[in-house]
Design brief:
The protein has about 325 residues and is α/β, with parallel strands linked by helices. Helix content is about 20%, strand content about 20%. The chain has a domain of about 210 residues: Metallo-beta-lactamase, Chain A (4-Layer Sandwich).
Length: about 325
């Protein structure tokens, strides 16, 4: 977290050594890892069940928990990309140790994949999750249904493809725009990685998700840059918490890019987002940035933010006003 900020909540560094330090392989060590992370999720459920807890699992992966209900957003919890690209001109050298074995994540209402890239839709993450969570459902863009089925191994009834209208384009006919998974209601919104694209049936290939739970609205953008009208759509959603990528885009990387840190801060401010958490950095050496530019721009705009380290928890504490828990909550 940035010094001088108004953090939502972030517990201590119980568990996997000193956070942010390098291990024997030179990788960043998560704040909480494996057993320590599982212990923390259980402790949070017991001690503050009415709060909305969230853990950064690295890259664009987040775990949400409210009243014991759990939703997993875009997890990448393997070394499949490191192996795939070893010895090529685009090596995916991991910067941060894996936060948790996916088989340890249980009690999930569902999991999302915002688009087809493996760091968001990873077979080596999804298959153990499916085995550990009978009845698990996967939410994804309808346009990538065949790939979602192949990588997850899930039956058709557990595959929930969504679509969303985008500027100048309606939703694809017959494709839903939202779904409920236990306590969580997910609504699809467009994402532009680096442009808004659709398949031959008119379904978007990349999405973001608005997640409503316990009186809060959480926005997971997926991989995206800013596009016309984006802030208007988000402002209308009254977002309490957003997870936005900050790794930016450079042609020499050879991969589609995302928001730069200062752009993420500006989007959050222009969209009236209560608090923004940066992600999609410190994953791979060839495709990362430091978060300082994001933090500096947030401070200059008076935009509340929370910088988590891998394996660290943040929490939204319910505001108990006349309208009940969670109503109108915009910070600690």
């Amino acid at each position: 977290m940035g010094a001088g900020d108004d953090p939502v909540s972030a517990p201590g560094t119980d568990g996997a050594g000193r956070p942010g330090t390098r291990g024997s392989a030179g990788r960043i060590q998560p704040v909480l890892r494996d057993d320590a992370l599982v212990t923390d999720t259980d402790a949070a459920a017991r001690s503050a069940p009415e709060s909305l807890h969230f853990w950064w699992l690295g890259q664009s992966g987040f775990l949400l928990q409210w009243r014991g209900h759990r939703l997993l957003l875009d997890p990448y919890l393997s070394d499949s990309l490191t192996r795939k690209y070893a010895g090529t001109d685009k090596p995916h050298v991991r910067m941060t140790e894996r936060v948790i074995d996916p088989a340890r994540l249980t009690g999930l209402s569902g999991v999302t994949a915002s688009h087809a890239h493996t760091d968001h839709l990873d077979a080596e993450t999804l298959v153990p999750l499916v085995c550990a969570n009978p009845g698990l459902r996967l939410v994804f863009p309808e346009a990538i249904r065949p790939l979602a089925a192949a990588r997850s191994g899930l039956p058709e009834a557990s595959l929930l493809g969504l679509d969303a209208p985008s500027p100048g384009r309606p939703s694809a006919p017959g494709v839903p725009g939202s779904v409920s998974l236990g306590a969580f209601h997910l609504e699809a919104v467009p994402a532009a990685h680096e442009s808004i694209e659709a398949d031959g049936q008119g379904s978007l290939t990349c999405l973001g998700f608005l997640v409503r739970v316990g009186g809060w609205t959480v926005y997971h953008s997926g991989d995206t840059v800013r596009f016309p009208g984006m802030e208007d759509r988000l402002r209308g959603a009254r977002i309490d918490l957003a997870f936005l990528p900050i790794n930016g885009r450079s042609p020499e990387r050879g991969v589609a890019g995302n928001l730069w840190g200062h752009e993420a801060a500006e989007l959050a401010r222009d969209s009236a987002i209560g608090r923004v958490v940066p992600c999609h950095y410190e994953g791979f050496e060839f495709n990362t940035v430091t978060p300082e530019a994001f933090e500096e721009r947030c401070r200059s705009l008076a935009q509340p933010f929370l910088r988590l380290r891998a394996g660290e928890r943040g929490s939204l504490v319910p505001h108990r006003g006349a309208d009940g828990p969670g109503a109108g909550f915009r910070g600690p």
